[in-house]
TrEMBL record:
It comes from Paraburkholderia bannensis. It comes from the Bacteria. Residues 36-57 have a biased composition (Low complexity). InterPro entries: Hemagglutinin_rpt (IPR025157). This is Hemagglutinin. One of its GO terms (molecular function) is catalytic activity. Residues 36-66 are annotated as: Disordered. Pfam families: Fil_haemagg_2.
């Protein structure tokens, strides 16, 4: 069994956490498992003229890439929070067994 505990908030962004034999994540504050966002932007401008007249073109392209946090545990997992547990764009998986999400506040699970 593995254990990760912190006195404040525990935040994992785009991380891969592997508790192969099962384990516990615990924080006195919030537990945040969230996707990492990467953005690439390309701006281009061109202009010129030809036999038909002049022209001007511009384009803007922006691509977002999300990398989920994955939390893998063997047969049991406990996530405990003194405040909220927030799982956004991330995955929790077990080989078999049970997962317990225990928070003094809210448990929020959503897409990125």
């Amino acid at each position: 069994m593995s254990a990760i505990g912190v006195g404040g908030d525990l935040t994992a962004t785009g991380a891969n956490i592997n508790l192969a034999g099962g384990g516990t994540l615990a924080a006195n504050g919030n537990v945040n498992l969230q996707a990492a966002r990467s953005t690439s932007t390309v701006d281009s401008n061109s202009s010129g003229s030809d036999g038909h007249g002049s022209y001007s073109e511009s384009s803007h392209r922006s691509d977002d890439t999300l990398t989920a946090t994955t939390l893998n545990a063997g047969n049991s997992l406990t996530v405990a929070s003194g405040k909220d547990i927030n799982v956004t764009g991330s995955a929790i998986s077990l080989d078999m067994g049970t997962a317990t999400l225990a928070a003094a506040g809210n448990v929020n699970i959503g897409a990125a």
